[in-house]
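Entry type: protein chain
Record version: 2
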Amino acid sequence: MAVIPAPPVAAPTAAAETLIQSGVDPEADKAFATEMQEVITQLENKVATAEDKIAGIKAVNLDTQPRTVTVFGGKTFRSGQDVVQDVAYSAIENLVQEIAAFPNSRILIEGHTDNIPTGKSGSDNMDLSLRRAKAIANILVLNGIPKDRISVNGYGDTQPITSNNTEEGRAKNRRVEVKLLPQGGAN
């Protein structure tokens, strides 16, 4: 019986040699490997895209968007008053430390109230919310935060975070929010 020589081909790699010896079709395996490489490339691209989106979110939140650092809730002030209660002072100490860690940021202090009228002649919730924001600002200044970094706004009852129909809801709406406003990401 005469042996017919096979046409010359490139020398198989060690992995291909193993596949040939085990009876697996190297061409089918090569096609499968190519297909799997395409799937891997697609998945890597999706991961890279997701990582880019996450990096973009972090950059926006940390470098350009205001960040709420403290919310002084309903127990900070007595109803209808702008005097800060002792319960808030540990939160104020923590706030001063956090603000000090971002020396180039501006500080925005926003006062809010529930929808119950103050009952005082010449004083309404808009005025009360501004006085409460100023009370927090004054404490920050007394703790060494430069006054020129601080802005205050009073919103009265115009921006509730929940319904004013219950005492619990009204307590949540009586708040002062302190936000850091980064200056061009220079922190």
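Comment: Helices lie at 14-22, 26-63, 89-100, 125-142, 167-173.
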